[in-house]
Design a protein that fits this description.
Blueprint: E1 7-8, E2 14-15, E3 23-27, E4 33-38, E5 42-45, E6 48-51, H1 52-60, E7 65-76, E8 79-88, H2 98-106, E9 117-120, H3 153-166, H4 185-199, H5 205-210, H6 214-222, H7 254-266, E10 273-282, H8 286-299, E11 305-306, E12 309-310, E13 313-314, E14 317-318, E15 330-332, H9 335-346, E16 358-366, E17 369-377, H10 386-401, H11 415-424, H12 429-438, E18 462-469, H13 471-483, H14 488-505, E19 508-515, E20 532-539, H15 546-561, H16 568-575, E21 589-593, E22 606-611, E23 622-630, E24 636-646, H17 652-671
């Protein structure tokens, strides 16, 4: 359109202007058209497509904002952020209510389109042609999303904790959203544990979801945080080393006891073996590698613990460092024989009463190529443990290559200290009451599309398939999570529940998930079996759309997280469901989002690559592991999905159909989350 009257130029001039499709205009107070911006300024920030003009239009709609510009800044390499620049309508700098502005935008834009920082200016810098001089826009003050420094010691301490957990060298702004910066359920639990340790107050994971900024969480702490949401467990004594002398027969943790009983009833098997295979290219120092593995075993008592019993009662026996030798010799092998050799070694069972729970194998494939296999029994490790295990191995190898011993930072506690600490704590009655009520009336068995009846006793034989979710769908799913104040895990959980519902599981679907179980920050760098299992129940009644389902899942998951400290084994013992060796109790489908870093360790003088060891065992009917992948700048790069299934009851073609339908549903709901589940198309046969 052409303005029919002379209109004020948005940057100070006056003149007639020809507007084009894509211009954003508004009627000003004097009854003339005012140019606001354009919507064709599309950029990508952390993988999300952002229309700068749309953000600017919402900024100028906030009372008190006369003009606004949004820019993408990369003041730290690889860290692109949206910054909003605003000019106050009264010309007085320093009077904006930044919290109100952020809340205003959050109610109108998805989280990834809300600027992470704001700067208030008396006037926008202009070029000689009266256009905004974007190169002259100032950087926001580091440490504050609003251009204002932290306002209290609590905010300063929280900023450091946010940065640590997010793995950032830059402290986030006080009004930046933890989840918008890449936080997820697992890192949220780590942050909550660190807050408890530093401030000595009780903060629930729901508190972080409801107050995801430094500013809001600091206000919560300063105003008497203490009661956990939903009546969850209160504070307990911090974890410290057990006083000397330790008991001669150390107790097993609850999780270890379950694996010990399983091993005693079924005999040694490979179902709980955890293999890590690495391809090492370069001049490998085998002697240094052998010594480095010994250093790691010496550092972590869990890796040199055996589990004998006295009169049927098991106990932990920590083997002295000098007696915990790890044999490692390089065996020549043809490349064509390598895969079978790795699989056979990975499937070799442990005898828990006498074997150290770790073994190493090394094959020489060529003059400068080796393959290292580390196999650890689950009784001594979990998914989180792979990080500290490989980091310590890299540090030790680098030191041994130089002819010295590694200078490890001492661990604050060992696994035996955790087991003793856990043994003196009891699940509070209110926690048990929560789970009794939460699981009341839940189906004992999830209806699945079985190809044959369950055998009386599971063989635990399994197979796996892998498939990919493309980058664009990953971006859209992440945006869907942020828009619903949820995490990617919650979105994927909702999708799995929806597919199982379409396969006949009904409107009450229970899945299991693993949580880190490291309820004290002293356990962060320790190798051991801490992981706990939660039962997540999903209500699919009433044919909800996917957005509504995410809201239901978010609420149920947060309530479960608030009560995650009760060991799964104690919960099963208390609820006493019908037990049968044919299936897992309380749930048969396991769901995990693997947020661990897949980058292999850096070993001095070597190129290191991960080697996948295919799963040939199955603990559950179905187990889905989602691995979100990211570009170097942190933006979404697609999701790898690994589905392990029990071959006792499923044929490959059924699993292929299931993966196809899950992929289809993820694509559909990412593009349109408001279609009722029963009306989703292209799920033929479901």
């Amino acid at each position: 359109v052409t303005a029919s009257r002379f209109v004020p130029d948005p940057f100070g001039g006056v003149g007639e202007r020809m507007y084009r499709t894509g211009d954003l205009v508004r009627w000003g107070a004097s009854g003339v058209l005012e140019f606001v911006g354009r919507v064709d300024g599309q950029v990508k920030v952390r993988g999300f497509r952002v229309e700068l003009g749309e953000v600017e239009a919402h900024l100028v709609a906030f009372p008190g904002v006369a003009r606004a510009v949004v820019a993408v800044r990369e003041d730290s390499p690889g860290d692109k952020r949206l910054v909003g620049y605003v000019v106050p309508s009264d010309g007085v700098v320093g009077g904006f209510d930044w919290a109100a502005l952020r809340g205003f935008l959050s109610g109108r834009l998805p989280g990834f389109m809300v600027p992470s920082a704001f700067v208030e200016l008396a006037e926008l810098p202009l070029t000689a042609h009266r256009k905004v001089d974007r190169r002259a826009l100032p950087a926001p003050v580091v440490g504050s999303g609003s251009g204002v420094g932290v306002g209290s010691v609590v905010e300063e301490l929280l900023g450091g904790l946010f940065a640590q957990v997010l793995g950032s060298s830059v402290v986030p702004g006080v009004d930046e959203d933890f989840f918008g910066l890449g936080g997820h359920s697992l890192s949220a639990m780590r942050l909550v544990n660190r807050v408890r340790g530093v401030f000595g107050v009780e903060v629930a994971i729901r508190d972080l979801f409801d107050r995801p900024t430094i500013q809001a969480l600091a206000h919560h702490i300063e105003n008497g945080a203490g009661a956990l949401a939903d009546g969850a467990r209160g504070s307990r004594e911090p974890l410290r080393p057990a006083p000397d002398p330790r008991p001669t027969e150390l107790p097993l943790s609850s999780a270890q006891l379950r694996l010990w009983i399983t091993d005693r009833l079924g005999g040694p098997s490979a179902v709980y073996n955890v293999p890590v295979a690495l391809r090492l290219v370069g001049a490998l120092d085998v002697q240094a590698l052998r010594a480095a593995i010994g250093d790691v075993v010496g550092r972590h008592e869990s890796l040199r613990t055996v589990f004998p019993d006295r009169d049927g009662e098991p106990y932990q026996c920590v083997v002295d460092v000098g007696s915990a030798g790890i044999e490692l010799t390089a065996t020549d092998i043809a490349p064509s024989d390598l895969a079978d050799a790795v699989q056979a070694a990975a499937d070799e069972p442990f005898v828990l009463a006498v074997d150290l729970p770790i073994r190493a194998r090394l094959w020489r494939v060529g003059p400068d190529e080796h393959v290292l296999l580390l196999v650890v029994h689950h009784i001594a490790t979990d998914g989180w443990s792979q990080g500290p295990l490989l980091r310590d191995l890299a540090q030790a190898y680098d030191a041994r290559v130089r002819g010295s011993a590694p200078q490890f930072v001492p661990l604050p506690v060992q696994y035996a200290d955790f087991a003793l600490w856990q043994a003196v704590g009891e699940a509070e009655q209110r926690d048990l009451e929560f789970w009794v009520e939460q699981l009341r009336g839940a189906p004992e068995e999830t209806v699945l599309p079985l190809d044959r009846p369950r055998p009386a006793v599971r063989s635990q034989l399994g197979a796996e398939v892998r498939f990919e979710v493309d980058q664009d769908t990953h971006v859209e799913l992440q945006a869907l999570a942020q828009g619903g104040n949820a995490t990617l895990f919650m979105v994927l959980h909702a999708a799995v529940a929806a597919v199982l519902h379409r396969y006949g599981a009904g409107t009450d679907v229970a899945v299991g998930t693993a949580v880190a179980g490291r309820s004290d920050h002293a356990l962060d760098d320790l190798v051991g079996f801490f992981v706990n299992t939660l039962v997540l129940r999903t209500d699919l009644s009433g044919n909800p759309d996917f957005q509504t389902l995410i809201e239901r899942v978010r609420d149920a998951d947060l309530r479960a997280y608030a009560h995650q400290d009760i060991p799964f084994e104690e919960l099963v013992a208390h609820l006493a469901p019908v037990r049968t060796p044919a299936r897992h109790p309380l749930f048969q489908v396991m769901l995990t989002v693997d947020q661990t870093d897949p980058v292999p360790p850096s070993l001095s003088g070597l190129t290191v690559q991960n080697i996948e060891v295919p799963a040939d065992t199955a603990k559950f009917d179905l187990a889905l592991v989602f691995q979100p992948n990211h570009h170097p700048d942190g933006s979404p790069a697609g999701i790898t999905i690994q589905l392990t299934y029990a071959t006792d009851i499923f044929n490959p073609h059924t699993i292929q159909a299931l993966t196809h339908h899950l992929s289809t549903l993820l694509t559909q709901v990412a593009q349109n989350s408001h279609t009722p589940l029963g009306e989703l198309s292209d799920l033929e046969g479901v």
